[in-house]
Amino acid sequence: MGMAARGYYSSPQSRDPFLESQLDLRDSSGATMPGYGWVFPLGDGTVNVGVGLLSTFKRWKHVNTTHMMNDYVATAPEHWQLSEEARLTKPLGGKLTMSFSKSPLVGANWITIGDAAGAINPWNGEGISYAYETGRLAAEYVGRAVGSGDMGGLRRYPQRLEDEYGLYYKMSRIFVKLIGYPSVMRTLAHTGLRNRSLMEWTLKVMANLLDEDEKQIGERVYDSLAAIVRTLPTK
Question: In CATH, what class is 2-96?
Answer without folding.
Answer: alpha beta
